[in-house]
Amino acid sequence: MLSETDVDRLFQALADATRRDILRRAVTGEHSVSQLAAHYAMSFAAVQKHVAVLERASLVTKTRRGREQLVTTDPTALARARELLEQVEDLWRHRVAAIDDLLAEEATGAPGRTGHPQH
Amino acid sequence: MPVIDTEIDREGLTLTVTAEFIATPERVWQLWADPRQLERWWGPPGWPASFPRYEFEPGGEARYFMTGPQGERSAAWFRFETIEAPHRIELVDGFSGDDGEPTDAMPSMRMVVEIEPSGGSDGTVTTMSIRTIVDSLEHLEQITSMGMVEGMTAAMNQIDELVA
Lengths: 119, 164
Hints:
The complex is a heterodimer.
Chain A: H1 4-14, H2 17-26, E1 31-32, H3 33-37, H4 44-56, E2 61-65, E3 68-72, H5 77-108
Antiparallel strand pairs in A: 1-3, 2-3
Chain B: E1 3-9, E2 14-22, H1 25-33, H2 35-38, E3 49-54, E4 61-67, E5 73-84, E6 88-95, E7 108-117, E8 125-133, H3 137-163
Antiparallel strand pairs in B: 1-2, 2-8, 3-4, 4-5, 5-6, 6-7, 7-8
C-alpha cells in the first residue's frame, strides 16, 4: 500500500509531460541522464531534476556506472510482471462490466446500470 | 455477470480472464464483430475508444484511438489473424505512433478470444475467455506505463474538478 505522501509524490511526478516522457523511455531499458537530456530542449541540470523527482516517487532507480548515471525502472522482473499483469486484469474487469451493461440495456431496453458513457 | 476467473502466468507473461454472460454465443460474438458495439466497452475508464477502420476478417486490420478527459488521443491498432465465427478470434493489439499508424517502436500484444456456450436450460449462458500474451517484460512495462499514465491523468483531472 502506498501512503498518502507516496501518492502525492506519484501524482506530482506524473503531472509533468517531460517526466512522463522520461518514464516512457526508462521502461525500455537503461539510459544515462545525458542520453535522456539529448531529447529535450532544456539543460542537463533541468533533466537531472526531473529524474530526481521520478526517483523520489520510486518510479525509476538511478545507478552509477563510471562517470554515467543510468536511469531504469525497477528490475525485480517477476514481481513487476505480476503487478503489471494485474493492471491489465483490472482493465478487463472494467470491460466485462461495460459488456454486462450493454447486454442488460438490450434485455430491458433501459440504460445500463453503471452509466458507462455513450458515444 | 462478473469475471469468473483470472489466471496470471508470470513467466509466460500471459493473463487469462474468463467471464460468463447471459447471452448466446452469437450475441457475444457481435461484441467483437460490430465496431459500434466494441466502442462501447473497449476503452479504459475515462478513455472511450473509436474505431474508424475495422476489417473484421482474417488478415484484416483496424485503427482506433482513445480520447482522454482533456481531449488527448492515444492511437492504436489491431491485426486479425484468425476469425472463426462465433467461437474464436486471434488478434494482435498494438500502440500506434503520432500519425495513428503501427510502428515497431511501440509495443504490441497478442490476444486469443474464445467464446463457448456454457449451459443455461435455454442455451443462453456463454463463456468468453481472453488470453493476453506479451512477448517480453519490457513490452509489458511499456504497455502498462502508458495505461498508468493515462489512468493517472484521468485521476488528476478528477481531482482538479474537486478542488476547482
